[in-house]
From TrEMBL:
Protein name: Sugar phosphate isomerase/epimerase family protein
SUPFAM superfamilies for this protein: Xylose isomerase-like
Record InterPro entries: IolE/XylAMocC-like, Xyl_isomerase-like_sf, Xyl_isomerase-like_TIM-brl
Every Xylose isomerase-like TIM barrel domain range: 30-278
Molecular functions (GO terms): isomerase activity
Pfam families found in the cross-reference section: AP_endonuc_2
Length: 283
């Protein structure tokens, strides 16, 4: 399988300081049709709606805007790296709230026309034993995976950088959690920056998680940072060749969301898509 721009998506979180309409205009100028929709303000935020009917009205407006220009949501990515959402929380109320939040997000994903929902393990209290937090995360993911199976939704779980979470930051962590949850609905998303930070290779994931890798988050780094493609020192060519070698057929989301781009995200996205457009014909 040849990688092409048809498999490229962009995460909308990097446009958090801009309107959804501006984001769509930027996507159109860059020639990208696939959206990994971050569900946070000001575009679409769960807390802005008192019930599902009100949320559905907003979703309908956004879908109409995307339909008119031939764009689609390929994955819904809820905000989850900040309080008060944490699947590994020791606090029962916080953990239950987090589970309920993701259940609603599954429904939103279906309304947006996708069966993919991005998810992470949460983060454990660092002054407590890791295994305690691991247990809370695992049980939360089991509940969500069972619900996802009923809805026909696929949960794609990403490893995080060690500063973001003390639970899943390596390939072995990912393998362990997927095995312990033991659900066909729980799949793997690889963030190449998080992978590089712990000095792992893309091939490690394909070797240890055959058939489970459904999504890729792509950016450059040194190795941390989520930079414009070509501005860091990550082996992007090697990554692309590994994806081809393993006949990867999922989407590759550009996650160019380092804070240095927040005030003007369009040039960063344009440079990254231009990089890929020049690169793909060489594969």
């Amino acid at each position: 399988m040849n990688l092409t721009m048809d498999r490229i998506a962009v995460m909308s979180v990097q446009y958090v300081q801009y309107s959804f309409e501006y984001f769509l205009d930027s996507m159109e100028m860059c020639g990208v049709k696939n959206i990994e929709l971050w569900t946070g303000a000001p575009h679409f935020c769960d807390e802005d709606y008192t019930n599902f009917i009100e949320a559905r009205k907003r979703i309908k407006i956004m879908k109409n805007q995307m339909d008119q220009i031939g764009m689609k949501v390929i994955c819904v990515t809820p905000e989850q790296l900040n309080y008060p959402i944490n699947l590994a929380a020791h606090n029962d109320v916080l953990r239950r709230r987090s589970i309920d939040y993701f259940i609603r997000q599954m429904e939103y994903a279906l309304e947006f026309g996708t069966r993919q929902l991005f998810i992470t393990s949460g983060v454990g209290l660092r002054d407590k034993p890791k295994e305690e937090s691991w247990k809370y995360s695992r049980e939360s993911l089991k509940v969500l995976s069972e619900h996802a199976e009923k809805l026909g939704v696929r949960l794609i779980m990403e490893q995080l950088q060690p500063y973001e979470s003390n639970l899943i930051s390596t390939c072995s962590d990912m393998v362990r959690m997927i095995q312990e949850v033991d659900s066909p609905s729980l799949q793997c998303c690889i963030d190449v920056v998080a992978m590089a930070v712990v000095n792992e290779k893309l091939e490690d994931f394909f070797d240890q998680l055959p058939g489970r890798i459904q999504h890729i988050h792509l950016a450059d780094g040194t190795p941390s940072g989520h930079y414009v493609l070509g501005d860091g020192n990550l082996p992007l060519t090697e990554y692309m060749k590994t994806l081809q070698k393993n006949q990867y057929e999922g989407y590759i989301t550009l996650e160019i969301n380092d804070s240095i781009y927040l005030t003007d995200p369009h040039p960063a996205l344009k440079r990254s898509t231009d990089y890929l457009k020049k690169y793909f014909p060489l594969l």
